[in-house]
Amino acid sequence: MIDHTLAGGDSLVLMPTGGGKSLCYQIPSMLRDGVGIVVSPLIALMRDQVTALQQNGVRAAYINSSLESHEVGEIFRQVRMGELDLLYVAPERLLMDHFLELLSTLEIALFAVDEAHCVSQWGHDFRPHYLGLSILSQRFPNIPRIALTATADEPTRNEILERLNLKSANMFVAGFDRPNIRYHVLPKDSPKQQLLKFINSEHEGESGIVYCLSRRRVEETADWLVEKGWNALPYHAGMDKGTRQEHQDRFLREEGVVIVATIAFGMGIDKPDVRFVAHLDLPKNLESYYQETGRAGRDGLPSNAFLTFGMDDIAMLNSFIDKSSAEERVKQVERRKLAAIISFCEIASCRRQALMHYFGDQHPEPTCGNCDNCLSKVETWDGLETAQKALSCVYRTGQRFGVIYIIDVLLGVVNERIINFGHKNLSTFGIGKEHSRGVWRSVFRQLTGAGYLEVDYEGHGGLRLTERSRDVLRGEVEIAFRKDAKQISVFGSKAKNKIKSRTTSRKRKSQAVSGSNNPLWDALRSMRLELANKQGIPAYMIFSDKTMDSLVDLKPRNLDDLGDVYGIGANKQKKYGKAILKVLAGK
Ligand code: ZN
Q1: C-alpha triplet 68, 73, 74: angle, nearest 5°
Q2: pTM
Q3: How many angstroms separate the CA atoms of 217 and 196, rounded?
């Protein structure tokens, strides 16, 4: 991807959070002549990225509304003098006439449009100014452009290519898998208790994010966690700006803070050591779920995604869609997306596989070994024959009817439509009477979730067969349907053992129980905190947990050896090398 940009080509980059997306424009910006212009929708994201780049000795700056006018003037001066390799701006700023004028006088290395899915009017992060960015292709036809996103299904990809005028761009798609995140989904019983039990057993003293649907629930949950001894802070749009900012800063800078938030929190949060993301209410689609859970474990160390869902969530989200003022076709898309996340919750098979399938990616194995369904036995029933009945009924009725109609046919319901379409005489009419309507609904959700059926949303939402359906009809696969979700146990004890046996957990543990396990780790950690506080930046920007692991393992003795340590480049070696060596030598 970097070679392609260096050669002057345009690109669309799809990469999961934590996959190294920003390197795709940072490195070419440094290598090509001129300054790389990065369009970013969020002030917090710009600030974090620029601070992290500066820590590594890269000449980077941002311009946004948080700066005073003399500060902006200084950055303009730097950029005119060729003193910057990267400049981050918001789309609103970029599109101002005087800014475009300035750009036309500069040597520009590339344009990067981060969070490019914001261009999608159907998406949940739509930003109207993104639509104006197509102007870049007209004003600067010879400068390479890169659009980047962590979430984009096929229609969104096409929208990005079209609206940003990137039709000749190369597409670079990295796998959507986040192997270090373990997925847990459980039926909602008493969600706060379920959460507490989970984090007490897996995440003592660690950082995490808890999402709730309403402000009231955010407040309640945060208070309750504080009562239970957790360092928890609320965050939602109803709080005053100062307090919200303070809570976000504490989450970034202190260790072991749990933030309880509505979905307003998190976009652009670059904290690498978030160890868990919990949803106490069902997110409205898998895009949000994937994006929000993706904030866990950006450093690659084992992390958890935890979700409780109940029938009332489904009803509430459905009524949000019904009551919204959106056009009917937009509502259709939203309903489809809601159905997809419900089936993700209900499946009995590997969740990772289902999630990746949804994003058009494939997990190479049928089981991942790192989600609740793979780790503990889900109560299932052998459903091959039922699946065959379902699929052949879809086929016999012409692959154009929705689930309610198909179930009517299976149950042998005699109504006007069935008579009119002549489906009373089908071989599949009434062959499914052994199951209730509820069981059939769950069967269809699970078949769709597993990719054996798909819904035609461009038509009228009819079900149709897929490539994989043939395997079922020929009886070449085993089909296990999940039993009534209420019967699922919380988590198997196996699951816990496995996460503890992973190589890094020993060191993570020593973080939680300060001083009891590894004094060297603790000494490094307090030095890191001290350095961070002096500069007013988050500790992980000095160096990451992964770097601390590497320091403890390798115990470098001199500055040269430090070069072998993960995450320590020339700049950090120079800046912090002596301090690190002193701690390692026990002085
Ligand atoms: Zn799995």
Answers
A1: 100
A2: 0.69
A3: 15
Select the CATH number that applies to the domain covering 519-584 from these four: 1.10.150.80, 3.40.50.720, 1.10.3720.10, 1.10.10.1590: 1.10.150.80
Listed in order, the ranges of the chain carrying CATH 3.40.50.300 are 2-173, 181-375
In the reported structure, the alpha carbon of residue 563 is separated from the centroid of ligand 1 by a whole-number distance in angstroms of: 37
pLDDT of res. 463:
87
Q: What's the 449 CA to ligand 1 centre distance in angstroms?
A: 14
Kindly write down the DSSP assignment for every residue of 357-403, as one continuous string: HHTT---SSS--SSBHHHHSPPPEEE-HHHHHHHHHHHHHTTS---H
Out of 126-135, 140-149, 315-324, give the one with best mean pLDDT: 140-149
Domain 181-375 annotated CATH 3.40.50.2000: no
Mention every residue, 6+ apart, whose C-beta is less than 8 A from residue 101.
none
Class of domain 2-173 (CATH, top level):
alpha beta
Rounding to the nearest 10 degrees, give the CA dihedral for residues 399, 403, 407, 408.
-90
Instruction: Please name the helix (run of DSSP H) or strand (run of DSSP E) that holds residue 192, with its range, or none.
Output: helix 191-202
* CATH code, residues 380-482: 1.10.10.10
CA 369 to ligand 1 center in whole angstroms: 5
Q: Which residues pair with 233 in a beta bridge?
A: 259
* pLDDT for 427 beyond 80: yes
From the CA of 307, how far away is ligand 1's center (Å)?
A: 15
State the distance from the centre of ligand 1 to the C-alpha of 465, rounded, in angstroms.
Answer: 24
Distance CA 504, CA 28 (A): 33
DSSP assignment of 22-74 equals THHHHHHHHHSSSEEEEE-S-HHHHHHHHHHHHHTT--EEEE-TTS-HHHHHH
